[in-house]
Amino acid sequence: MIALLRRDLRLAVRAGGGFGLGVAFFLILCALVPFGVGPDTSALQPIAAGILWLGALLACLLSLDRIFALDHEDGSLDLLATSPLPLEGAVAVKALAHWITTGLPLIVAAPLFGILLHLPAAAIPALLMSLLLGTPALSMLGAFGAAVTVGLRRGGLLLSLLVLPLYIPTLIFGTEMIRRGQDGGDTMPPLLFLAGITAGTLAVIPFAAAAALRVNLR
Amino acid sequence: MSLLSVHDLAVARGGLRTVEGVSFTLAPGQALILRGPNGIGKTTLLRTVAGLQPPVMGRIEMPDDAVAYAAHADGLKGALSVTENLVFWAEVFGGGDISAALAAMDLTALADRPAAALSAGQKRRLGLARLLVARRPLWVLDEPTVSLDAASVARFADTVRGHLAGGGAALIATHIDLGLEARVLDLTPFRARTDSTARPAGFNEAFA
């Protein structure tokens, strides 16, 4: 399984792997918003939390279809399915690799982009914590969507339609947590909800996604 | 003691039965060549034996984790070098030394080349080298010699012979004569009758 993680990370940073694409997209989105709504603090501050989380969601979505589609095309997925590696384990590892290459850079870059959107410094810890707890769920749910749509031509669009509604709970509690951090409120309840959603997806998704893959490999 | 025994097997592709009533056994040291016209269901039969899809009817008996499967796609990553590709599969299958596998498929000189820069025949050789690091007793091979030149085909036939001599078995779908001492199973007489039902138990139309 470590071998699979190493391979996926290596592929992501090699040419054409798409590493950094998510962060670049996130940056563009956060840089464009002030042009759209105006640069005033009064206009930007109330929507900063929402924009940051929407940006994270969409940036995450960009690379989702690569999780299984490339391995399906070149036959690796068939070989993985016949290997001693449990397919559930392969799903979990591939989602982890996606999180490391997409989610983690977003978390590191988010405080900087918060400044672009006039997010007050007091809200930065809540921003980091919400992304840290929430983005693993994005990768996990995305892996499930990718498993369901693997092998479909133009599956990327269908994948977005399937996955984005599943992101709603994470989006709600993620933005709520930043907003409470901004206003000096109690961030614990949304934090616990975020952690609970992520823990739930970590427990359930590998099995659901592996079942979907087995059906799609037939 | 047989490594693989198939009883009265029927397989389906896209909801249509292709072949039915196929039975054979493979003991260690034996190879079986599958023949038949295009579309008869050789690939489907091999995928079923490899466990990638369930049989419509019949039984497949073999030890757990016995199959090394090689199909039309070699499962190579173009961005990784020949060595990196092979080391990955060696680690996944818990197999061993890749240098012997590289030498057996005449890839030693190409070891540091990215897989994307290989020719079709070289890629195929790398895909077959994976069989050697997988260390599985039963090789299930779908047209293994596609895009190989004559020398490589001979080399591959030697490799299969070595595998058989070491107590392995091989189930190979191919149209060319590999020069192996193997039984040949022509699937033509097993073509499914059109009136037979193709639905496996629990078949769901939505996934057809």
* Strand percentage of chain B: 15-25%
Report how far apart the termini of chain B are. Answer: 37 Å
What is the class of the largest domain in chain B in the CATH system?
A: Alpha Beta
Structural class of chain A: mainly alpha
**How big is the Rg of chain A?**
18 Å
Quickly count the helices of chain A.
10
Helix content of chain A: over 70%
Order of helices and strands of chain B: EEEHEEHHHEHEE
Low-confidence parts of chain B: none
Number of strands of chain A: 0
Shape of chain A: elongated
Number of strands of chain B: 8
The most extensive interface, with participating residues per chain, is:
A-B, 27 and 30 residues
- Give me the Rg of chain B, rounded: 18 Å
CATH architecture of the largest domain in chain B: 3-Layer(aba) Sandwich
Low-confidence stretches of chain A: none
Number of alpha- plus pi-helical segments of chain B: 5
Helix/strand-derived class of chain B?
A: alpha/beta
Provide a short characterization of the protein structure:
The complex is a heterodimer of chains A (218) and B (208). Chain A is an all-alpha fold.
Describe this structure in words.
The complex is a heterodimer of chains A (218) and B (208). Chain A is elongated, with a radius of gyration of 18 Å. Chain A has one domain (2-217). Chain A is mostly helical and 218 residues long. The two termini of chain A are 23 Å apart. Helices cover 82% and strands 0% of the residues of chain A. The mean pLDDT of chain A is 90. The longest helix of chain A has 30 residues, at 87-116. Chain B is α/β, with parallel strands linked by helices. Chain B contains five helices and eight strands. Chain B has helices at residues 42-49, 82-92, 98-104, 120-134, 150-165, and strands at 4-13, 16-26, 31-35, 57-61, 67-70, 138-142, 169-173, 183-186. A five-stranded parallel sheet of chain B has the order 5-6-7-3-8, with helices on both faces. In chain B, helix 3 packs across helix 4. The longest helix of chain B has 16 residues, at 150-165. Chain B is globular and about 50 Å long. Chain B starts with a strand and ends in a 22-residue tail after the last strand. The relative contact order of chain B is 0.23. The model of chain B has no long low-confidence stretch (mean pLDDT 85). Chain A binds chain B through residues 2-4, 6-7, 10-11, 14-17, 71, 73-76, 78-85, 215, 217-218, and chain B through 47, 50-54, 65, 67-69, 71-77, 79-80, 84, 87-89, 91-94, 130, 134, 207.
